[in-house]
Amino acid sequence: MAPVVRIIGAGLAGCEAAWQLARRGAAVELFEMRPHRMTEAHTSGELAELVCSNSFRSLALTAPAGLLKEEMRRLDSLVVRVADGHRVPAGSALAVDRERFSRALSRAMQSLPEVRLIREEVTELPPDVVIVATGPLTSPSLSRHLASLLGSDHLYFYDAISPIVTAESIDMAVAFRGSRYEREADDYINCPLTQPEYDRFVNEVLAADKVPTRSFERFVPFEGCMPIEEMARRGRETLAFGPMKSVGLADPRTRKSPYAVVQLRQENHEGTLYNMVGFQTKMTYPEQKRVFSLIPGLEKAEFVRLGSLHRNTFIDSPRHLNPTLQWRQNPNVFFAGQITGVEGYVESAATGIVAGINASRWLEGAAPVVPPETTAVGALLRYITDKARTGFQPMNVNFGLLPALATPLRGKARKELMASRALAAMEAFALRVAEEIGCARGPG
């Protein structure tokens, strides 16, 4: 009987790993517990459901997420291709209609003859080659099993979800379209606040009732997904210099920059839904409706989804994983996605690519590979698997992870040269792994 790779979790990382294995001719069993067992954050049984945001972040090569996506294209990323095909307006960012995106990725998985989709919960690691891609919402049963195998407790932090409103409920007599620094673009809707309105809003955010933290879970907020009330506690102007900054925007009614703005980003292809950018929150549902109605333009907003809070689970990867994403105690076991301690959609999918490539090579008896450290993917893997790292916390891709340039540069010039170096290294790496396996490129 031909060997089978079993993938636990059909999120972004799991689907990407399954695709990389299938295009190399490997048999895959892809396990997904939803919809039979739902999580605190998911609402459907579609694969790779996006729960926090519909944005894959910047497309610019001088932005870390933009560089990472371009590297993933070199590796024939299914996730990026499907995202490109279901893009919605978001300025220089790649944002998607999340429902169409998930449906399309589900269909892609189900169309692969090498992949068998199994809708059931996995509570223990199966034998032989397995990829654990259960994500930040790993089921309690499997979490306990993994904790017993790894010999240490899992680490926890909370991830807060931004609210979504209907477009027709936004008062466009007050709100206006525009993008920061992009005078010709109008992809975002902006709700302007004066200083008194901003001060009142901050007061109410701080005073609002919050969802309590349970005694057995500790709150360690990730900087890239900080709830607005946590930011407000750091200082009254933190929001005004963060998600509510008004720089680069002018209110057409006054022709002046507002004191602060709340930006809304298109959520679906039809443009009927918008999400509140950077407005992750722990406030209770009634308090969210009350406090957010204080925002000019959102006084009568219809919320189709309010913010919520869920637990993210990740392992202490520097203690347990090699850069190939194999468990040091058992190289038949690979980990991928946010459970490894990478943070973000593209980062999760990128680790799925590497895990899929290496699981295929492992089956073939070839040595697993690691992208060069000068690439965004390679630098991210180096960060999460550095044995010397203590106090490990999740990380988005960033230029600070990449090795320094031989020529000292600053600002945009530094980022451009780092991106050029990374893509050249990734192109050579992608060509080598494709030729060694002998796989063909997927459909464009």
The percent range for strand residues is 15-25%
C-alpha-based Rg, rounded = 22 Å
CATH architecture call of the largest domain: 3-Layer(bba) Sandwich
Strand count:
17
Oligomer: single chain
Shape: globular
What would your notes on this structure say?
By secondary structure, the protein is of the alpha+beta class. The protein folds into 2 domains: 4-154 and 315-437, FAD/NAD(P)-binding domain (3-Layer(bba) Sandwich), CATH 3.50.50; 160-309, Elongation Factor Tu (Ef-tu), domain 3 (Beta Barrel), CATH 2.40.30.260. The chain has 12 helices and 17 strands. The protein has helices spanning 12-22, 64-74, 78-85, 98-110, 140-150, 195-207, 228-233, 285-292, 317-320, 345-364, 376-384, 411-437; strands spanning 4-8, 27-31, 55-58, 87-88, 93-96, 115-118, 130-132, 155-161, 164-166, 176-177, 188-193, 260-266, 273-276, 303-305, 308-314, 326-327, 330-335. A 6-stranded mixed sheet has the order 6-2-1-7-17-16, covered by helices on one side. A 6-stranded antiparallel sheet has the order 10-11-12-13-9-14. A hairpin with a 4-residue loop joins strand 4 (87-88) and strand 5. Helix 2 (64-74) runs parallel beside helix 10 (345-364) and helix 2 packs parallel to helix 12 (411-437). The protein is globular. Residues 215-219 and 440-444 have low confidence and may be disordered.
